[in-house]
Specification:
- This is Insulinase family protein.
- With about 950 residues, the chain is an alpha+beta fold.
- The radius of gyration is 28 Å and the shape is globular.
- Helix 2 crosses helix 26 and helix 24 crosses helix 25.
- It starts with a strand and ends with a strand.
- It is built from 30 helices and 25 strands.
- The strands form five sheets. It has a seven-stranded mixed beta sheet, with helices on both faces.
């Protein structure tokens, strides 16, 4: 059962190794202790997703099956208004390929966008753009091991546009055109995509997948394919795969959007009803199951192990307990079992996190259950050692797990996790009116892939509430033990040094006896906000007045704290909160730059008053509270996404951090260790070097924007951290921005008790930052990476400007940037296949007088670097000399218009645009022209901006090339 909320995702915390999603892992399910047998028999066309399930049908969805076997699910949804989200799911991914067809499922996805019945070669992307859909975000497709999903989010839909959408989409899915020219053009693009995604991380993921799923197709079936099979592809061989799997009885169309269900069904019937199925539907491939090695010791479940040596990656130890995957009936009882599974894992993860915060041998560790690509039911354990001694780290994590397998949890521990689950399930109930149609459509696609159902948030919460009597220590204990049993256990050590261990060492680490770490259990004592001292004497409201836009109110408290309040019902149950204070990067002394990044990692974990991070966690149990922290050019920012019931306490947390800071040492030491472990990985590929260094180099080498290296990190001390951050927390004005579903009088009262109770603060010093990009260079600045020798990256940047006075020009520059992007995409990807996804972006800092730039970046082969620099110079010169075409203008203005229109239906859009508006009221004037600025321009205006900014002798060039071996 997948919730239509997106918030109760079975409490998944992906293992660190798998975060890159290259394993294409679906949402987890479980098959314990004894899965119900999958239903058989005749399918009800109006209820096909729920066959064999007693989970209440989400009545908002209308299901059906066309005579040709095509299934559909449609739903009316007005978030955002006017948009219709279409998902076409073909039940075929990389594990449906033969050895000779590896990569075909993904290649077909590419070719489908290239040439089809109603969209000839090169027309698809421009056509969707002119319909208002942005390529890559609104128009996209994904291929996994088990399915291919085509995604379209079409804005401002009327009857004609809806008909055109389904017409074009039907041609793409049912009648793509595979030509020698198309294949010859698209294969190099896929190979470029393969190059750009290849590196140490991808090798580790491929190696781990190959180990964990030994003997199963998933072990070798990466969706990207292989160089040999892709180069051998022909229109005929590709068509054979398409004809076999692209058939109506193997396809599902999902539509959620601002249209009547009957209208959507009529479009599906009209454009897909004539799609004929040829022959008998082929059987599903056999995905195999995990098995013990031949001749293995029956008493020892540990099977194959592996050591993967990657000099640029930190140590990581992963092991998986694997069981055969079994399709089940997605019943209420089955989901109640899943909830108990999650409780058991949540208890272990909390214990591991608490231990890691102290003086543990591991920096981080987690356990998670996942059903992977319908191939195995797995329990995954990930360990990040704190130093070189990975064996102690694995031992200590296994000891925590051993304790969970030896003794049932206490009722108090369970109650704490149940409270966390309660809020995770309840928030979606409170905010379900804000669910976007695109998210709802994705939920159905995911449920189909993992062979489950969907349920609305009320149903999920109701099942959870009725399940609480089942959450006993005995049940949680039994489920936990089942989660750590399986057919085979496989483990892998990722290490920078081959001398760190052997496969035998990995096996020994998994089989060595461990004593249960009984001391890992967390105290179950509760802590309430009512137990905490007041921030100070509550303040009063000095002034309150309308801001003159949308009912937003500007308030000043007696101590000088300013606030923007906008109470509205646009997103029921949700409040967005931002607290801006101090001076940001501008206030940090460059010689203390390393403490800036440490602050982002550790400042909030260091607690406040008498509360450390563990106490804060207990305080937040069952609440929607957070302590997010970021640094902007001229502000420090605390942010949270909360709900009406928790607003006052969320404000207390933020005000407490400023008024009663605490300086625990462990969070700083842990952040330092994490930063050191992660730094070397930044050398592993050209894109990681570019991501690490481009930002601060584009600010003329300002160290405050740099990622600190290990030598700088070695200088970090808890005492130094406090020396830097204690005055930073105390200086500069405070602005509190609160947008969403709250009671105005209650919110003001909470502000008075929290931020109004802080001492009056002095004004911040005027920002001294005035960044500029480096001077023009004929020869590119060259950096090196340690990754594959056939990969490189490059950038060309041109200086623009900064400051609020040029905000309208900055928006026009964004349109120019997108035109540049279209041309660079065509030149580097479509014409020569040198790069998969070249990007051009514009940066204009409104709070600084300078520092803006336009930057074109690309990943490619080293031999293609001259072609990129030549193309960038050529495009810049042509845009300066000649106005762009009307077609190019339409391709960028219509998507931007639709993007702004859709975004402006949510509070987050206004929060972002008006941030700082209590201190700088002019921002309210800036927002009034945003739609016209982003969606209206002329060829002459674009040419004038290009002539002003895209000047060759002001450009700066950077390249990242392989380090010589």
């Amino acid at each position: 059962m997948t919730s239509n909320s997106g918030s109760s995702q079975r409490f998944v915390r992906f293992a660190a190794l798998l975060l890159a999603s290259a394993l294409v892992l679906p949402q987890p399910t479980a098959a314990r202790p004894a899965p119900a047998k999958a239903a058989t028999g005749k399918v009800d066309p109006t209820n096909w997703l729920y066959q064999g399930s007693d989970v209440p049908h989400d009545k908002e969805w209308v299901f059906g099956i066309l005579p040709n076997g095509l299934r559909y699910a449609v739903r009316k949804n007005g978030v955002p208004p006017g948009q219709v989200s279409v998902r076409v799911l073909v039940d075929a991914g990389s594990m449906y390929e033969t050895d000779a067809q590896r990569g075909y499922a993904h290649l077909i996805e590419h070719l489908t966008f290239r040439d089809s019945k109603y969209l000839k070669a090169g027309e698809a992307i421009p056509t969707w753009q002119k319909l208002g859909a942005t390529f890559g975000s609104d128009t996209n497709a994904e291929t996994s091991a088990t399915q291919t999903v085509y995604k379209l989010d079409v804005p401002e839909v009327d009857a004609n546009k809806l008909d055109e959408t389904f017409k074009l989409l039907s041609g793409m899915i049912t009648a793509p055109i595979f030509t020698p020219v198309g294949v010859k053009t698209e294969v190099p693009i896929v190979l470029a995509e393969m190059r750009e995604r290849t590196g140490p991380q991808s090798r580790v993921i491929d190696g781990t997948r190959g180990l964990f799923f030994t003997g199963q197709p998933l072990a070798t079936r990466s969706p990207i394919g292989t160089v040999d099979t892709l180069n051998a592809a022909t229109p005929e061989t590709i068509k054979a795969f398409h004809d076999k799997w692209y058939r109506p009885d193997n396809t599902v169309i999902i539509v959620a959007g601002d249209a009547e269900p009957a209208q959507m069904v009529a479009q599906i019937t009209n454009w897909f009803g004539g799609w004929k199925k040829v022959g008998k539907k082929p059987p599903q491939p056999d995905f195999g199951k995990p098995v013990r090695p031949v001749g293995a010791d029956p008493a020892n479940p540990v099977g194959e192990t592996r050591v993967l040596v990657e000099p640029d990656l930190p140590r990581l130890f992963n092991y998986a307990i694997l069981r055969p995957w079994t399709q089940v009936d997605d019943t209420i009882a089955y989901n109640q079992g899943l909830m108990i599974d999650r409780l058991g894992l949540a208890l272990i993860n909390r214990r591991l996190e608490a231990k890691a915060r102290g003086t543990a041998s591991f920096l981080a560790a987690s356990v998670e259950q996942q059903d992977v690509s319908r191939s195995a039911d797995t329990t995954l354990i990930t360990v990040t050692p704190l130093g070189d001694d990975w064996k102690s780290a694995v031992h200590d994590v296994r000891a925590v797990i051993a304790d969970a397998l030896a003794t049932p949890p206490s009722p108090e521990e369970i109650a704490r996790e149940v409270a966390e689950f309660d809020v995770a399930f309840k928030v979606p109930v409170e905010t379900q009116e804000t669910l976007a149609g695109s998210k709802l459509a994705d939920d159905i696609a995911n449920a189909i892939d993992i062979r489950e159902t969907v349920a609305n948030p009320d149903t999920v919460y109701d099942i959870f509430q009725k399940s609480k009597p089942l959450f006993t220590p005995k049940a949680v204990f039994e489920h936990t033990r089942a989660l750590f049993q399986g057919a085979v256990i496989r483990g892998v050590l990722i290490t920078p040094k081959a001398s760190d261990g052997t496969e035998a060492d990995v096996k020994a680490a998994l089989t060595a006896p461990v004593d249960a770490a009984s001391g890992s259990r967390i105290s179950a004592n509760t802590l309430k906000f009512s137990d905490l001292p007041p921030i100070g004497q509550p303040g009063t409201v000095a002034s309150a007045a309308p801001a003159g836009l949308l009912g937003i109110e500007r308030i000043e408290l007696s101590n000088g704290v300013k606030a923007l309040l906008w109470h509205n019902a646009a997103e029921p149950g949700r409040i967005i909160l931002r607290v801006r204070f101090g001076g940001g990067y501008a206030a940090i002394d460059p010689k203390d730059a390393v403490y800036g990044s440490m602050g982002e990692m550790a400042l909030m974990d260091s607690g406040f008053g008498k509360l450390g991070r563990d106490e804060l966690d207990r305080l937040a149990t069952g609440r929607k509270l957070s302590l997010d922290f970021d640094i902007d050019d001229t502000d420090f920012v605390m942010s949270a996404d909360t709900r009406p019931a928790d607003l006052a306490d969320q404000l207390y947390l933020f005000a407490g951090k400023l008024g009663m800071p605490r300086w625990d040492a462990n969070p700083i030491l842990r952040a330092r260790a994490a930063a050191k472990l992660g730094y070397e990985a930044t050398n592993a590929s050209p894109q990681s070097v570019l991501a690490r260094d481009a930002g601060w180099l584009l600010k003329n080498g300002d160290p405050r924007y740099a990622q600190p290296n290990p030598a700088e990190l070695d200088k970090v001390t808890p005492e130094g951290f406090r020396r830097v951050w204690e005055p930073l927390l105390a200086q500069g004005p405070i602005e509190v921005d609160m947008f969403g579903d709250f009671n105005r009088d209650e919110a003001v009262a909470a502000l008075q008790k929290t931020f109004g109770a802080l001492p009056k603060r002095s004004d911040a010093a005027p920002p001294s930052l005035a960044p500029t990009i480096p001077a023009h260079n004929v020869e590119p600045l060259t950096l090196t990476h340690h990754g594959d020798a056939n990969t490189a990256a490059a950038m060309v940047a041109w200086p623009t400007g900064g400051g609020r006075g040029g905000v309208r020009e900055s928006r026009q520059l964004e349109l120019l940037t997108q035109i540049f992007n279209i041309r660079l995409f065509d030149e580097m990807r479509e014409k020569i296949g040198a790069s998969y996804a070249p990007q051009v972006n514009s940066v204009w800092p409104t709070d600084l007088p300078s520092g803006g730039y336009i930057a074109a970046t690309v990943q490619l082969r080293p031999q293609d670097l001259p072609a990129f620099f030549a193309a960038a110079d050529k495009i810049a010169a042509d845009l300066s000399a000649n106005p762009p075409t009307a077609d190019e203008i339409a391709r960028v203005t219509e998507p931007m218009k639709q993007l702004i229109t859709r975004a402006s239906t949510g509070n987050g859009f206004y929060m972002y645009q008006l941030q700082g508006g209590a201190l700088e009221p002019g921002k309210f004037d800036d927002i009034r022209s945003i739609l016209s600025d982003y969606s209206t321009t002329t060829p002459e205006r674009m040419q004038a901006l290009a002539s002003r900014y895209l000047v060759r002798d002001r450009s700066w060039h950077l390249q990242v090339v392989p380090q010589k071996k």
